[in-house]
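hey so i finaly got around to running the thing on Monothiol glutaredoxin-5, mitochondrial from Westerdykella ornata. pasting the sequence first so u can double check i didnt mess up the copy paste, my clipboard has been acting weird all day
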Amino acid sequence: MFSRTAFTAAARTASRTTRVLASSRLPPRFPTAQQIRLLSDEVRQAIDRAVESSPVVLFMKGTPETPQCGFSRATIQILGMQGVDPAKFTAFNVLEDNELRQGIKEYSDWPTIPQLYVDKEFIGGCDILMTMHQDGSLAKLLEEKGVLVPAEEPSADASK
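ok and heres what it spat out for the 3d tokens, dont ask me to read them lol
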């Protein structure tokens, strides 16, 4: 059988080799300058214009009529339940433009889509909207910003 010293020496040699090989295949602990993607001025300006295009702007996967992910669908449902005025709402399908899809994440420093902006201010993703919807703060925010469908006033005929 193997002697204890020969086996230990062989194990040390093997583990050194494995460590060297393993470490050479692992990505660096911190991103290198080549891995950091900076948002181009062109994409930043396009996103600025998009955010400024309506009082309520949603960057989502798919369209409001045909969302392409459950989180985008849930966000659209929340905005509908809140009564957001369609005339004050714009949605952008990030699946149509990969630069937009990656750029919006860098623009907001938020890693997920969908992303909601109200009055040019980033509000959050689906999880944040769900929490705000449940605690009532989303309704208050949307009302303060004046982006809800105006309440219908009772007509004179209805009171008779």
